[in-house]
Amino acid sequence: MAKKSGRSTDASRGSRVGLGRGLDALLGDASAAILKDETSGQGVDKAKTSPGQPGRPSATLPIELLHANPDQPRRYFNEDALAELAASIRVRGMLQPILVRPTGANAYEIVAGERRWRAAQRAQLHEVPVIVRELTDEEAAEIALIENVQRVDLNAIEEALAYQRLSDHYGRTQEQIAKAVGKSRSHVANIMRLLALPQKSLDAVRTNEITMGHARALLGAPDPDALLDIVLSRELSVRDTERLVQSSGGTSRPRAKASPVTEDAASTTAQKAGAARLKDADTRALETDLAAALGLSVSIDHERGKGGVIHISYLTLDQLDDVTRRLMGTGV
Question: Which residue of the set 38, 114, 142, 287 is catalytic?
Fold first, then answer.
């Protein structure tokens, strides 16, 4: 039991280290240090500095001086989760400061921590702990995107839009984005591909009416919105949705662009493809859902009546730490 407790502590420390490494990859050392301070809760010293002094931590600011970041990727906040956080804040206070930047006289924009700010309003706090930093628009937008993707469970569409903004506005590649947020490149690519869906289907994913597995199947449909109505009215599974797409003249899964491969790689790919064909659609759908939840490649080897094995592939120690924390229930 003692060993488990120690691992939990290490995992908590690893989350901060992993966050910093990801930000270093995308933003550089200076911007990464800003969010690492905010994440660890360091730097708030009530014996030092006056409130709102740029470039240094401050004890508190009146809550009415803070305003939301227009580049905040999260558009929907879970009401039950906010209520729980507000109740916790009423009892324990706000344990972690909000990262803000000055935007005018007695005005501060929230860079990271909007969920806590909203909960603090519900808890009727008059002042909140903050860390004040001078940041450019680009730094603020990037930090907000990464903080949300790494630390909060965005829905798939919000996550995709966050990645798309990093790509379009700041020229980040999928590889850079994946390294920064501790996900696999294939996860980033698959999430961003969902943005090709029409608005009605996007909204269905955003509101959790359909899963990412359903959405990926609909990507291969000639008219995703038309099939969406059938999926919802019949409450179809991912497997049935794939069949529906195929029967409509589409493909069950969007085809990836072909790329040159070596003979060995082609052999390995063929072996994997052969193994995949032996799996039923429910197993493949479960692999897709787990991969989407973890942001990593997942393979399930199942023998009927004999159990099986789940393989989770990671590329970095940061990704291993993230999976470990999830399995141990110590949060993300």
Answer: 114
